[in-house]
Structure formats: structure tokens, C-alpha cells
Amino acid sequence: MPNTPAPTASALAPRYPVVVIGGGQAGLSTSHYLQAQGIDHVVFEKRRSFDAWRLDRWDTFCLVTPNWQCRLPDFPYAGPDPKGFMVKDEIVAYLEAFARKVRPPIHEGVGVTRLSRHPSGAFQVETTMGNCLADHVVVATGGYDLPIVPPCAHSLPAGIRQVHSVDYRNPDQLPPGGVLVVGSGQSGVQIMEDLHLAGRQVHLAVGSAPRSPRVYRGREATEWLFDLGFYQLTVDRHPLGDEARHKTNHYMTGRDGGHEIDLRRFALQGVKLYGTLDDIQGGTVHFRPDLGRNLDEADEVYCAIRRDIDKYIAAHGIQAPEEPPFEKVWAPEADPLTLDLAAQGITSIVWAIGFRPDYHWIDLPTFDGRGHPSFRRGVSPVEGLYFLGLPWLNTWGSGRFLGVAEDAQHLVEVIAQRQAARAPAPAPRLAETA
Description:
Layout: E1 15-21, H1 25-36, E2 41-45, H2 51-55, E3 71-72, E4 75-76, H3 88-102, E5 106-108, E6 112-117, E7 123-127, E8 130-139, E9 146-147, E10 161-164, E11 178-182, H4 186-197, E12 202-205, E13 215-216, E14 219-220, H5 221-227, H6 263-268, E15 272-274, E16 277-281, E17 284-287, H7 291-315, E18 338-340, E19 346-351, E20 355-356, E21 385-387, H8 404-422
Parallel strand pairs: 1-2, 1-8, 2-5, 8-21, 10-19, 11-12, 11-19, 12-15
Antiparallel strand pairs: 3-4, 6-7, 7-8, 9-20, 13-14, 16-17, 17-18
């Protein structure tokens, strides 16, 4: 793999109390708390730490949440713009500074190829550097392993350039001509805007992702939502329960100081909108008749957030400027069902329909019927196995800089308690003889 460092030279110990798999912000947060507890451990990272941020983002990528929400363990954002949005290089610099503070016992360039039970009862950890045993294993690899491309992509004409969002960098890497962006989650709408601002003709297949206001009634919506307790809501109290983990995040952007994204306004500016991708037959793309519904449902979530903020302001007697009611500035006359790529001059497609995790290397009974890991606040039913850094592991912030520290601290406390419970009782003192 390009940019993969050579494995650290030091040999592996035969057994570790804790093995952490993944050297990103989740894995290093775990290492921070393990060191604080005095628990010996090792971290395996198959690439370099933070290469997902360094190498797998487009050039204009920035956070969609404000900098004040960057709260890694004992390392909150301390820069000059807490209400701003760090761009890619600033994010990497923040994370690298965190790594220098933590100084984890990490082996970079070492991938874990299999995790299973050893006959002794410990975990068998097989890596590209060798094997070891572990009493506890924390899987902190995240959920963005395998880019999703629909099977019908194989039907596209050979001349159409296909790029997944993980490989998109800037408009200049795409051939001249129109671009179809498939997916309207965070990545899709931001790449759409990037292309649109560069003067490209953009076509966007709109899915079911909800949207959020950026600033409302004189204040960042994320600040209002923090005060409302939204970020403290745990998954076991969420109306959707575990299904919340599989829902798409609200789209907005931190670009150019942050702003909300209303796809209807982009339609007025010339972006062509379609419903959910349904099929591809040769040079014709087919869509479901759901564009109007998808736009309406995204707007309803947007308006519901505004109503919640309005209620909070009224209940607490807060003085805040009024806002005009939401109005639709554009609506499709009919849902377009087909798109002829050649006729519209489309030469490339950007797939922005997400990722799926890759847990094929975990040979343990910890997955549900859909292949997702089972856990309660990261603690697997397989004793000694833990997951960290996933969306809604406990709260909305669990997969983000905001909540990963709290989750990591909780898991390390569980590990420490289990270690203490297994420790042999001290031998009784013999009475001293006269």
C-alpha cells in the first residue's frame, strides 16, 4: 500500500494485557487512558496514524462541526478560531500534536490479519509482523473500510471516468465535461459544491440524507443543540434505538466559514437534481421517482431542528433575533427518471454513497445478522472484546472528536475493573513468630 511505513523494528511481546487495533484518534485516545491506568498495551496501525485524514480526503475538505467540538483526551482545540472549521492540513496537525502528547506504544505499518480465540482462552492476534496473545482487544478501526460502488456501475460506458469520494481530490482530476455525483450525504453535497464553484455542470442524485441549519436565530445551530442536550442523548434513549447507528448524518458544510446547504438553491443556480439512483443501462442512468419526497423530508428535519431551538428559546426566555419562516425556493415540476450521459455531456461520475466496515478478519461470534458488531457502549458480548470510534456507539459524538474521549475512558475503566477482578488475591501474611 502506498505511504505505508515500514513496521517498527522492535519485536512483539508474546502476550499483552491489551491490544488496540487502529492508530487513529480512537485508538490513541484508548492508549492515553490505558497509560493513565498503568496498563501495558500495544497499538497496531496498518498505515500511518491519521493517513485516513491525510490521504483520503479532497483538497478543500474541512470539518462540518466547529473547532470547539474537538475534544480529544486532555487535548481540546486551543487555536484562535474555536467557532471556525479546521481544513484538512489543520486537522492533521491537531492530530499529530495529540500523538506527540500521547506517545503511544504503536507499531505503524502493521496490519492485523486475524483475531480469534486461542486454546488458552486469550485472544490470538495475527499480524503482518508476527503473532501475539492478548487478554483484551479494542477494535478502533472505524467503519469506513470499503468504498461502496453499486453493481450497476459495471454497465457504464468505458469512456465514463468513475471516482469514489475517497479518491476525489479536486475538479481538475476529472476530464472536461459534466459530472454526475451520486449521493447527497456529507461528502456528496460538499463535492457537488466543490465542482459547482469550479464552474462544472453538476448533476446530483439525491438520497434520503437529512439536512441541518448552520446558523439560526443569531447562533450556530450546533451550539443550540449542545445546550438542548442533543449531544448527550445516548443511543439507548434515542427514539430509533440501535437503528440510529445506520442513519445518514445531516448535511451542511464548514467551507468558507460554514454555511447550510439547501439543494433547492443549488438547483436555481444550475445544478441538476434527480432522485435516488435505481439502475444503469448502458449510457442511461435511471432514478427512482423520489426527488420531491427526498427534498421535502430533508427540509422537514431542517425545520424540526429550528422548531426545537424555538421551543428552547421560548422556555428559557432567551433574547434571540427572529427568523423568517422557511420557504421552498424551488421544487421539481416532476421527478426526472432518466439521464442520458452522452446527451448531457457527462464524462465522469463521483460515487459518494458511503462505505462499509470490513470485519472479515475477526473470527469471533460478535456480529448481528447484518454483519455489524454487537456491543453495549462498545463492550462486546465476547468478553474482553471492545469496539470504539463508531457512530452512535453511545452518543452522536461517539464517531467524532467530540465524544471519542468519553467512550475511550469508559472502555478503559471496564478493562481496568475486569483486570482487578481477575487478579489473584494477595497471599495472607504469616503471623510473626516471637
